[in-house]
Amino acid sequence: MSVSDLFQPLTLLHGPPMRNRFMLAPLTNQQSGYDGTASEYDQQWMEQLAQGGYALIQTCATTVEAGGIAFARQLGIHSDAHLPGLTRIATTIRDGGGLSAVQLHHAGHRANPIFGGIPAPASSYTVPGVRAIPTEVVERIRDSFITAAKRAQMAGFDGVAVHGAFGWILSEFLSPELNDRRDRYGGSMENRARLTMEVIEGIRRACGPDFQIGWRLSIERYGLQLDELRELTAEIFNRELIDYLDLALWDSAQVVREGTFRGKSMLSVFTSLPRKGVRVGAAGKIMSAHRAARLLDEGCDFALIARAGILQRDFPLQVMADPRYESPTLPVTAAYLRRGGLSERFINHLRGWPSFVLPGSL
């Protein structure tokens, strides 16, 4: 397909269509208030993105419980006190012509006590000295995801994206390595997937037929099994439980190195599934117009823009203006990011990423 195909609209099972094939990936930026309240820096960041031509913009990972926090200054949706700031963000995105989603997040065993997090491991051996959370706590966290989705709807967002990647709680429960439970949330793949399924199904019941639901899935690390995840995804597609799958890959072009699908592209493992009306997109080193267009050739419906969107907030508009557009080469100086409008809080966060900000740059 050509770059121009990236600017074709895309219908979703629920709610309004995407105006093109560009979705902003959820990007941790650590610039909210310590209580999770959206700050002026969050608002400025969203104002830049809202004018950037994206079809759908996801927030950063947003805490569904105060104890599920992973990062300092992480955005929250676990309290009604967060609604005014979230409402401003949703309004800003809508005014820019895009759809909006809050990424719902709970860190699970990776919750950070330094920032008030309370580790909530699936198993007793994951975090030294911390026992597995009991069934009633699993159910409470499930309900917190659903309540947070209702808050997102109240704030005016078009939907939510359920964070099921990177070893956070939903991903953790899916992993046979991190989940040795003996209740209905452990053991078989069906049981380990139960928390994810109950969250998604509960959000649909609570938020109704016009609300959009995305699901972020990662495959690497944390003991996750590719064959199992493909089987689960096939069921979710077949039942049309979500509007879109967000495949969070380190590299969207990566190849499976072992097992049943050895030698195949990671994308093809999922894009080859019958998906009915569910849409599929991927993130992972999409730094040019050419690579974004190639994703459509490889079976994706849309492209998730991450680092390229930080470097150039209006990446879709850059691609529209220049079908040969390529992102600036990393690393960049802090001054470059500052000139582009990033806050010092965001820049300091990026200094912790490998090879993003030039060491020692001011």
Automatic annotation (TrEMBL):
- Protein origin, superkingdom: Bacteria
Q: State a single Pfam family of this protein.
A: Oxidored_FMN
Enumerate the InterPro entries for this protein: Aldolase_TIM, NADH_flavin_oxidoreductase, OxRdtase_FMN_N
Q: Name one GO molecular function term.
A: FMN binding
Say yes or no: keyword Flavoprotein present: yes
* Keyword Oxidoreductase part of the UniProt annotation: yes
PANTHER family xrefs? BINDING OXIDOREDUCTASE, PUTATIVE (AFU_ORTHOLOGUE AFUA_2G08260)-RELATED
User: Know the name of this protein?
Assistant: 2,4-dienoyl-CoA reductase-like NADH-dependent reductase (Old Yellow Enzyme family)
Give the originating organism: Dyadobacter jiangsuensis
